């Protein structure tokens, strides 16, 4: 990423299901989304989260 880029994060249909083997729970999910946004902003990029 470079300054001015956009980071597009599309949330999948299995993100909210506790039956998915990749399910992490809401607190960790929020933490990871925040980490992605902070990292993108730190590099001058613009994070955009796209719900399903």
Question: Describe it for me?
Answer:
This protein is of the alpha+beta class and 52 residues long. It has one domain (6-50). Helix content is 33%, strand content 19%. It has one helix and two strands. The protein has a two-stranded parallel ribbon with strand order 1-2. The longest helix is centred in the middle third of the chain and has 17 residues, at 26-42. The two termini are 24 Å apart.
- What's the overall geometry? elongated
> What is the count of β-strands?
2
Q: Give me the number of helical elements.
A: 1
Rg result: 12 Å
Low-confidence residue ranges: none
What's the multimeric state?
A: single chain
Strand arrangement in the largest pleated sheet: 1-2
Which band does the percent of strand residues land in?
15-25%
Count of distinct structural domains = 1
Task: Give the integer mean of the pLDDT values.
Answer: 88
